[in-house]
Amino acid sequence: MSKTIWKFTMDIDDKVTITMPKNAEILSVQVQQGGPVMWAIVNPEEEKVERHFEMFGTGHQIPEDGINRKYISTIQVTPNIVLPPLCFHVFERFERID
Predict the structure, then answer these.
(1) pLDDT tens column, 6-31
(2) Cβ-count burial of 12 within 10 angstroms (0-12 exposed, 13-18 middle, 19+ buried)?
(3) Domain ranges in the chain?
(4) What is the DSSP letter of 47?
(5) 39 - beta bridge partners?
(6) From the CA atom positions of the chain, what is the Rg in Å?
């Protein structure tokens, strides 16, 4: 069983679902070529599962709704040279996103 690092592109959105091999270990989320990208150590032979993530902007409320969330990373996205960077905080959500 061999592991490798895979890259997953993400949309900038409140809720994001990514299909990846089961038990993937998330390493980081950073901005690459203007958009968020997640890297994870995966076993490519594992079955694929959906994992759910949320992005909260600085100053935005994180709901106290009983949902189990784990902080992953903070990213800064510059929409263009005129606007200041937008800062998002990425969390994994352990309940299904509807």
Answers:
(1) 999 999 899 999 999 999 999 999 99
(2) middle
(3) 4-93
(4) P
(5) 7, 28
(6) 14
